[in-house]
Amino acid sequence: MSHDLQRWEMRNPVEVLISRETAAAKRSCAGCVHTKVVESPFGDLVSRCLKGRPYGRKCKRFEVINV
């Protein structure tokens, strides 16, 4: 698999890894109020969006849990 590196990926590998992980966290649903863990018919625990959106990608309805 050939993957051309971006210019920003030529720096310190640790910084590149941290940058990728923070970018992935900003795009996820983690910490949203509308997330609920439900049990599937097969007995697995699955995270679902209560707004009917696909779980895993941040949408416009994202709201942070106020603790």
Find the count of extended strands (DSSP E, 2+ residues): 2
Radius of gyration, whole Å? 17 Å
The secondary structure category is alpha+beta
Question: What is the overall shape?
Answer: elongated
Strand order of the largest sheet: 1-2
End-to-end distance: 45 Å
Tally of helical segments:
1
The parts where pLDDT drops under 50 for at least 5 residues are none
What is the mean pLDDT? 84
Beta fraction: 5-15%
The profile of the biggest β sheet is: 2 strands, antiparallel
Tell me the helix content: 10-25%
Order of helices and strands: HEE
What does this structure look like?
The chain has a domain of 37 residues. It has 67 residues and is of the alpha+beta class. The model has no long low-confidence stretch (mean pLDDT 84). The chain contains 1 helix and 2 strands.
